[in-house]
Amino acid sequence: MDSLFKADDIEKKEESLVSLPQLQSDEEKARYERRTMRSVDLHIIPIVSLLYSFALIDRINLGAARTAGMGPALHLEVGERFSIATVMYFIPYILLQIPGNLVVRRFGAKNYLTCITLGWGAVQLGMSFVPTWGYLTLCRVLLGMFEASFFPGIVYVISSWYTRYEVQKRLAFFYLSSVTISGFSPILAYVFSLLDGKKNIAGWSWIFIIEGSVTLFLAVIAFFLLPDFPESNTFLTPDQTAFVLERIECDRGDSVPDQLTLHKVFHHLSDWTLWAYGLMFMCCTLPAYALAYFISIILKGMGWSSADALLLSAPPYAPAFLSAVFFAWLSDKYRHRAGFIVIQALISITGLCLTAFSPQNGVRYFGIFLLNAGSSGCIPSILAYSANNVVGSSKRSVGSALTVAFGGVGGIIASTVYREKDFPRYLPGLWVTLGAQFLLLFLVWATTLHFTRLNRLSRAGKLAGPLEGQVGFFYTL
Questions:
Q1: Mean of pLDDT values over 140-169
Q2: Helix, strand or coil for residue 89?
Q3: Is residue 472 part of a domain?
Q4: Is residue 80, in this structure, part of any structural domain at all?
Q5: Tens digits of per-residue pLDDT, 400-410?
């Protein structure tokens, strides 16, 4: 593939890569590298994990609020009103992924991400006062509009800081920390719902009031703590910044962003592998969204009370964190992605079969643990798989946005196939989710076959130019 760098991009790159500090030995360089990257980790991962955890909480608390009394109050049990209110979030969420991610660098990651956090926090707060399900649906549309750019923007920022075989551990820790924290959303919702009647406000309204207020507070904090891209960061010394940029340049040759043009956007979108990553992401987010929106409802259908269903919704998220981080560590250590995606997809399939077909509720509940572990682990794995096989800032921006946009498609499917009339077992929805996992396995096989062939031809000198226009680059399998 021809490189899309223009002459001014190359000149900018050469000017930006200043000489690194003079280090006396390999041991001294290793210590300097550990100290620098530890500082990067501490300035990036905790704050983005905390912010995204509340993005997830604000996105998925609809099911908990319904269980806590919003359903009867807004007549959500009529027809498919709950599914409509749920699915409408994803329309702007999908449509605004790529446009939003293309302007992150123009406005700066810190400024842009802080503004959209303020936006969705205000919408979440406003949801507590909606009088009808129609206004609730409108708020969900606005929530999707503001949250659209956040996740792909964070993935874009994280992948810009780390080398290819460091990134999955960071993505896994960021994503799974957020998911684990958000997994306690049902418990928090239950606690907040106990305020029912205070100030003449319903318990389900208190859920939105408190969680929306926390998001607004975090947005203010984020303005001072959110990181920017490496070349414009303010927390590293100039020498450390040069060191980080040099590491990225040596690893994949795109430490300095290339100029973004409409031609490049369409050129990147013509690469079928970007669409394959998106479909993979859709397949693994489908069960994640299904659990987020319906786990408390499914548990209530097993016979537990509303309170117990909310409390039992949280435990399946804790083992998922440990599982995903373990597979991420293995994946980075062995510099391999596809095989570990397959293993985690098989874990999801096992969990789905137990939940869908076992006659015993205890076994069905254990299946939810496996399903959550497998699907949650696949998400950072696929993001890393995509990030490893992309060169160039503009393609990274387009690719991360397209991948996460397909995650929204997974949310739409989850919101529509788990139908009200299929309560309490939701077997058709579970069948669709199971089919998505087999599609994921097929896509991993197809991309692995494709990349293996291109790597072999490149090593044999049988291609017209270097892979991704970058000398020495080979695809990660």
A1: 89
A2: coil
A3: no
A4: yes
A5: 889 988 988 98
For residues 254 and 391, is the Cβ–Cβ distance under 8 A? yes
Question: Tell me, what amino acid is at 127?
Answer: M
* Range in 8-22, 110-124, 187-201, 364-378 with the lowest mean pLDDT: 8-22
Is residue 21 in some structural domain?
no
Length of the chain: 477
- pLDDT of 233 reads 85
Cα 48 to chain centroid, rounded: 11
Place of tokens 């592998």: 273
Distance of alpha carbon 259 from alpha carbon 20, whole angstroms: 25
Handedness of CA 81, 85, 86, 92 (dihedral sign): positive
What rounded mean pLDDT belongs to the chain? 85
CA-CA distance, 365 to 333, in Å (whole number)? 33
pTM strictly above 0.90: no
d(CA 148, CA 332): 28
Summarize the chain as % helix, strand, coil (round to 5).
80, 0, 20
Secondary structure letter of residue 259 according to DSSP: P
Q: Which residue has the higher pLDDT, 379 or 27?
A: 379
CA 225 – CA 223 distance, rounded (Å): 6
For the segment 176-205, the average pLDDT, to the nearest whole number, is 84
Q: 């203010």: which residue's tokens?
A: 220
**Is the predicted pLDDT of residue 97 greater than 90, yes or no?**
no
d(CA 374, CA 371): 5
Residue 219 pLDDT > 80: yes
Short-list 178, 146, 211, 389, CA closest to 288: 178
Please report the pLDDT score of residue 23 as a whole number.
Answer: 54
Residue 261 belongs to some domain of the structure? no
Angle at 148 (CA atoms; ends 142, 150), nearest 5 degrees = 120
- pLDDT for 7 beyond 60: no
Residue 216 has pLDDT above 70, yes or no: yes
Q: Which CATH number goes with the domain that contains 298?
A: 1.20.1250.20
Query: Do residues 167 and 384 make contact, with C-beta atoms less than 8 angstroms apart?
Result: yes
Number of domains into which the chain is organized: 1
Distance, CA of 15 to CA of 243 (rounded, Å):
14
What are the tokens at 351? 């969990």
Q: Which domain holds residue 410?
A: 27-231+238-254+273-460
- Cα 476 to Cα 19: distance, rounded to the nearest angstrom: 29
Reduce the DSSP state of residue 33 to 3 states and report it: helix
CB under 8 Å to 155, separation ≥6 — which residues?
171, 383, 387, 400, 403, 404
Rounded distance, CA 401 to CA 97, Å? 5
